[in-house]
Amino acid sequence: MGILEGKVAIITGAGGGLGAAYARLLASEGAAVVVNDLGGPRDGSASDVSMAQTVVDEITAAGGRAVANCSDISTMEGGQSVFEDAIANFGAANILINNAGILRDKSFAKMTEENWDICVKVHLKGTFCATLPVYNWMKENGGGVIVNTSSTSGLIGNFGQSNYGSAKGGIWGLSNVLTVEGRKYGIRIWTLAPGALTRMTEDVPRYKAAPEKALSPEGIAPAVLYMVSDLSGEQTGKTLGVSGARGVRELKMMEMEGWNPPGDGWTAQDMLTHADEIFFEEDHPLAARRF
To answer: Where is the Ketoreductase domain (predicted)?
Structure first.
């Protein structure tokens, strides 16, 4: 018996890459899976309904349970559709992995409104649309686990991805709020910043230079299985950076002890004087490592 026996998982963007790897692993551990994917190229300009069905066929051929959903999760109707397919086919929605995404990379000076809006819509609004019906079901049914996909492009920054990074940073903020609001309902929230070689990242220099095996989507999937299973206990509100090349690490926003100015006021010059109390230095043991 698998560690997810009796659970129902919804995975968006699961027609290939990371999502497909998650779907296959979770299904092998006993979960029934709703495989959502609009399909098409990575910029979201077209659709291909066969992508989700191909993954479903692989799962069912291996003895698992899965159904395909090709709805656009960047719309309220699409998010509701994925949830309803989970309930209609399997009777529950215990796990949600928000993984769907597109890329429209441009340097900020060349960014267009269209490329900004569609990227934020798919990533950030899509996470909202897919999460809302599932979250409300979990509130009434004893809880569940939600994994939201962020990125180091949003948490740290990356050239040419102001639209993508802004959306991914927003997803991290959403996860923080859901952690606070969902705790009393038994809803556990994870944020994932994966590093894998997929069609989304195939032209990113640091991914192109790494061995393909070290950055395979299958190298991320075990961490996701840990998050959504009982192996992770009651943990919630955690952000994990996961890569086959760099392993697994928790990512946190750190706060310095800071400087408390006197009650009679302070000046900008005082900030310079107390800079070592206010700012992290590059060699501070808790300073974030840029990568």
So the answer is: 7-203
